[in-house]
Fold this sequence. Notes:
This protein is an alpha/beta fold. It has helices at 39-49, 67-76, 93-101, 124-130, 144-149, 151-155, 180-189, 210-222, 244-248, 250-254, 258-273; strands at residues 15-19, 53-57, 81-85, 104-110, 137-141, 160-163, 192-196, 227-229. It is built from 11 helices and 8 strands.
Amino acid sequence: MQACHLSFTMPADACNAHLHIIDPAFPNDGKAAAQIGTVETYRALADQLQLPRAVFVQAKPFALDNACLLDAIQKFGPENARGIAVVDNTVSDAELERLHAGGVRGLRFSVWNPKNAVVSFDDCAPLSERVKHLGWNMQLHMGASQLVQWADIIRRLDCKVVIDHMGRLDPALGVKDLAYPFLQEMIDRGNTWVKLSGPYLNTKTGEPWEDASRTAIAIAEFAPERVVWGSDFPHVTEKVKPDEAALAGMIPLWFPTEKARQLALVDNPKELYGF
Length: 275
């Protein structure tokens, strides 16, 4: 691994709020071996980048089996790691309690691409009611048009809501996307956070992702207390993996002051995930 040198001072207890651990030692759909990102590899990276806290998000190769996720939390250290699981509404209450005890603090609904979605968004509202007493969040990875399509359901979620990857706004439109006013409305309600992550998912211009950065900066300026940052390691969507230092280099660009970085990397994840 190449050494990563930061051009800024990372705040103490900084959190990478979006990454995946993909260990093919766990039962999977056969695709994990091509997407490997182990706890050991990530820990070395986190040490270099001064990111002692992490939020691991269940990866698609494991579908509804959260064993790899729970293992990652334990190996990284439960005091500094949280998990976002994937389940459907057939899950038992006992299993939800077991996941909570293992460090899970939310459920992800990645329905951006219906062809490979593991769960249905139809289960989001009922599950949100079932985990409300646990303080979990519903993490929504969907396209901007889907946010608008399901706006009424999302508005009614009586729990913490997390919007993945900047809401996947059209990179050509950025904050002029029709979904952006809905994003602002949800943030103003006080229960919604936005993950500023995956610039390569939100670009038409490519690296250094200037169009994605404009969107991230606008969201961070609008709601400094409702944004978190994530690297999206191990970047399963990208054939050519982005440089980890370049991704971390987005932090001072998107959060240009020490106060903004303290909020996005420390205070906001603490409130959202219970560190």
